[in-house]
Design brief:
With 184 residues, the chain is an alpha+beta fold. The protein has helices spanning 3-12, 27-100, 106-125; strands spanning 128-131, 143-149, 158-164, 166-169, 172-175, 177-182.
Length: 184
């Protein structure tokens, strides 16, 4: 073929011309860059995951610390209240002894009774209440048995006499009730 014929054939059939494949040279450096970045990206992703895990653990640890501290404060407050109540309980015992004695002066007796009531109210304000014992089944968690008697009026293991009142704050016993237990 002559040059003219070649030119005509090129002009006449452009689709028959061999198509060049896309240049892969620029793609290869991008893939190599991705491969080079990929270890760095992978390393950063792993580090990020590790830091997130550490953060979550620290947050959980702090939350546990906060809860533990709050619980310890509540226990300490209850312990302090119970410690403050013990002298008041002793005063109430003495006032009750004084009220059980005969008194010829009605005003004096009334004054002692008012003081006893005021101290009892102080205990109630602290959340401390008397343990009901008389006629109740004996409970070693609440009662301190100092004697047993044979008494048919009460069922077995029932408190028939209270020597000293007991007090509790919620479920915590401040002072056990000193009692006598009946056994038929």
């Amino acid at each position: 073929m002559t040059d003219k014929e070649m030119k005509k054939s090129k002009k006449a059939k452009p689709e028959e011309q061999p198509q060049q494949e896309p240049d892969t040279a620029p793609v290869q450096p991008e893939e190599e860059a991705k491969e080079q970045e990929n270890p760095q990206l992978k390393k950063l992703t792993e580090e990020n995951a590790q830091l997130k895990d550490q953060l979550l653990r620290k947050m959980a640890e702090f939350d546990n610390f906060r809860k533990r501290t709050l619980r310890e404060k509540e226990e300490l407050a209850a312990h302090v209240k119970a410690g403050c109540a013990e002298p008041i309980i002793s005063l109430i015992d003495n006032f009750e002894r004084a009220l059980s004695c005969p008194c010829s002066d009605a005003e004096f007796y009334k004054g002692i009774q008012m003081l006893s009531t005021q101290f009892s109210d102080m205990l109630k304000n602290l959340g401390i209440e008397e343990i009901e014992a008389l006629g109740k089944p004996f409970d070693p968690n609440l009662h301190n048995a100092v004697n047993q008697v044979q008494d048919d009026q009460y069922p077995e293991n029932t408190v028939c006499q209270v020597f000293q009142k007991g007090y509790k704050m919620g479920d915590k016993v401040v002072r056990h009730a000193m009692v006598v237990v009946a056994n038929p």
